[in-house]
Amino acid sequence: MSIGVSVEIIQLAKNLGLHVIYSEELIDPRYTSAVAQEIPDAKVLVLSPIEGITKDEQQKGIGYIDKMNENMRNLMVGLECSQ
């Protein structure tokens, strides 16, 4: 991604008052972390696809529903929702 696009994304997030930047579990988190560092009080939360379940998680019984519940909790944080 070009520097110009990164600056545009950061400015848009600031203008919208966003404080959560999402990253996918299977993608290198460095870009989203760099963007979040430029936004006051921002943090990175992970959204996980089913392909992101590790062997260790499988052995612990973590499955699709668990990952989707985790995604839902992270989305609720970013959307400032309560249950």
Give an account of the 3D structure.
There is one protein chain. By secondary structure, the chain is an alpha+beta fold. The protein has a single domain (3-78), classed as Nitrogenase molybdenum iron protein domain (Rossmann fold). Helices cover 51% and strands 12% of the residues. It has helices at 3-16, 30-37, 55-59, 64-78; strands spanning 20-24, 43-47. The chain is flat. The termini are far apart.
Element layout with pairings:
Elements: H1 3-16, E1 20-24, H2 30-37, E2 43-47, H3 55-59, H4 64-78
What is the number of helices? 4
Name of the CATH superfamily = Nitrogenase molybdenum iron protein domain
- Residue runs with pLDDT of under 50 for 5 or more positions: none
User: What is the level 1 CATH name?
Assistant: Alpha Beta
Strand fraction: 5-15%
In the sheet with the most strands, the strands line up as 1-2
Given the C-alpha coordinates, what overall shape results? flat
Largest sheet: 2 strands, parallel
Known CATH architecture = 3-Layer(aba) Sandwich
Quote the average pLDDT. Answer: 90
Count all strands and give the number.
2
Give the CATH topology.
Rossmann fold
How much helix is in the residues? Answer: 40-55%
Offer a quick outline of the entry.
This protein has 83 residues and is an alpha+beta fold. It has helices spanning 3-16, 30-37, 55-59, 64-78, and strands at residues 20-24, 43-47.
Features:
83 residues, alpha+beta, Rossmann fold, two-stranded parallel sheet, 4 helices, 51% helix, flat
